[in-house]
Design brief:
single chain, about 60 residues, mainly alpha, 3 helices, about 55% helix
Length: about 60
């Protein structure tokens, strides 16, 4: 599973050019989640994730 990829048909085309027959991309899953719930979950994750992008400023940019 590749989180956050592909985001567009161009991403799929690029993936196919680079990966060719080595990997079969059989499906793409899209989850639609409430922004408030995602914010809460990610901010809780920040306590242990060690990720410097788990903060409210970055989340606002992502959601925009």
């Amino acid at each position: 599973m590749i989180d956050g990829f592909p985001r567009s048909e161009d991403n799929v085309s690029g993936w196919n050019e680079v990966m060719g027959d080595r990997v079969f991309l059989g499906a793409v899953l899209h989850f639609d989640a409430d922004e408030a719930i995602m914010t809460d979950r990610i901010l809780k994750r920040s306590a242990t994730s060690g990720r410097n992008d788990d903060n409210i400023e970055t989340l606002r940019k992502r959601f925009a």
